[in-house]
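Morning - dephospho coenzyme A inputs below, output right after.
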Amino acid sequence: MPILGITGGIASGKSEFRRLLLERIDADYFDADACARELLDKDPTVRQEVLARVHPQAYDEEGAPNRPLLRQLIYQDAVRKATLEAILHPVIRDRWSAQAQEPAYGNRFFVVDIPLLFETNAEKLFDIIVTVACAKETQLERLATRRGLDRQISEKIIASQMPLSLKIEKSHHVIWNDGALEALITQADLFSRYLHARHG
Ligand SMILES: CC(C)(COP(=O)(O)OP(=O)(O)OC[C@H]1O[C@@H](n2cnc3c(N)ncnc32)[C@H](O)[C@@H]1O)[C@@H](O)C(=O)NCCC(=O)NCCS
Ligand SMILES: Nc1ncnc2c1ncn2[C@@H]1O[C@H](COP(=O)(O)OP(=O)(O)OP(=O)(O)O)[C@@H](O)[C@H]1O
C-alpha cells in the first residue's frame, strides 16, 4: 500500500490532520518530530555527537536536552543547524524506511508526518505527498499562543523552512488549515474518501 507523506510549515496543523486522517483510514504512522525528540532524549551516540559538535551545554546536569538553547542556536547559525540535522536526519530516515518495509504494512497505508520532507529531498520515497498549509500570520499566532514562542524566533524558524508556495507546487494534495477545526475535519473526510476510492 502507498506511503503517504504529510508535510507543511511549522504549526500548520500536520499532527492534527494526521490524527484526523488516521481515524478514517487503515494505516500505521511515523512521526519524524517525535523520533527526533526520542533520539535527542535517549540515544547515547546522538547525545555524544550533539555535545561534541553542536554545543557543550546542549544537555543539562540531569542529561535532558536543552531544547530552548538548541532552538536559539540552530536558527541563528546555519552551520550548527546543518550539523544537528546531519546527526539526526539519517537515523530518522533509516527508521521510517525500515518501518515502511515491514510486512505488516503490506496492505495498509503508511503515513509519515515529516515537516522537512522536501528540505531533505525525500519526495522520491513517497507515493502521495500532502502539504498542510495556512497563512504565516496563523503560524505566528499558534506559535505565540500554544508554544509561547516570540515573534522573532518564530519568524526565523519559518524563514529557515522551504517557502510554502514551493511546497504546495511540489505536493499532490493541499489541505488548507486556516479556519476552524470543523473545516479541517471536513477536509480529512473528503481526503480519506478520495484515498479509499483511489487506492481501495
Ligand atoms: C531544535 C529543536 C531541539 C527545537 O525543539 P522544539 O521543541 O522547539 O521543536 P520541535 O522539535 O517540537 O519541532 C517543531 C517544528 O519545528 C520545525 N523544525 C524542527 N527542526 C527543524 C529544522 N531542523 N529546520 C527547520 N524547521 C525545523 C518543524 O516544523 C517542527 O515540526 C528541535 O526542533 C530539533 O531537534 N530539530 C532538529 C531535528 C529536526 O530536523 N527535526 C525535524 C523533523 S525531521
Ligand atoms: N484548524 C485549527 N483550529 C484551531 N487550532 C488548530 C487548528 N489546526 C491546528 N490547531 C492547533 O494549532 C497547534 C499546531 O497544530 P499541530 O501541532 O497539528 O501543527 P504541526 O504542524 O504538527 O506543528 P509542528 O510543526 O510544531 O510540529 C496545535 O495546538 C493544534 O491543536
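Note: Residues 8, 10-16, 33, 115, 142, 146, 177, 180-181, 184 surround adenosine-5'-triphosphate (ligand 2) (CB under 6 Å).

O.
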